[in-house]
Amino acid sequence: MGRTCKGGTRMFLHGAFMLGLILHSAVGLAAEVRGEMSPESAGLEMSSRRGGMGRKMFVTTGTGVSMLMGKYSPWVNWGQSFRMELGRTIGTKGLEGFVFLHSSIHNGSHFEEQGAAGCFENGSCIQGDTRFQKLGGGSRTRLVDATRIDVYGRVLGGVAITPLLMDNQAYEEEVVEEAWQGQRSSVHDQVHPFAGVGVYMDIGNFGTGIAPYLAVDSAYLLGVGLTTEVLAGFSYQFGQRTVSKAPKTPKTLKPKPPPKVKKAAPVEIPEDDDSDDDDAGDWRDW
Description:
Helix content: 10-25%
CATH class: Mainly Beta
């Protein structure tokens, strides 16, 4: 009962967080469509995801499916996964590092069914329902840089455990001694180092700093087998932005007005004086 309550509380909190991110992203998208918000003016600029950030940090949370391949896969079904990551940029060449917590729960075959099939003969016995918990870190680098979609390749590693989900005394008496003929499974008693690779796709943040993402990761757990997770969720980016100043436009020089030309004083032209002609008179008067 207590375990069920804890699981329900965890799923409720995760669902509430996811719902908040969805609403935040929807509000930002609606505002951008209405023209009230642009990727350049609200939060993170689109270009900042491609190098405009000085020191970018990010938080991602997602859920999806988990698959196990190996000697335990006949008894363990596909499960549901939850993951949270915290990371930041490393250096100035686009490399990003992160740490993560991962948990997946799988339905499994009943221990009596496993014993009847002879799981103890090949060491594949495992408790029915099984949980895998991982703690690790990794790094990623951008492979595709598009306007609204970025694709990263990443490597990751860490340690994993598969805790026992039943009372230890009941497990020893009813499961190991009776059903498995005294062959205790070591999968629940060991820490399992793992290493893997993955692909991470970040879809545009619509100017809010929140972006949906899709990730596919595969990792090999020592002593368990190969696990593959397909996750979808949201990533929130924040940090110190490097604002590039627009180049200063040179001041345009106003053309100097042409020099004022002084008007020359008008020249008075004397009128012709015909008085001499009048005094001379007509030659015919001579």
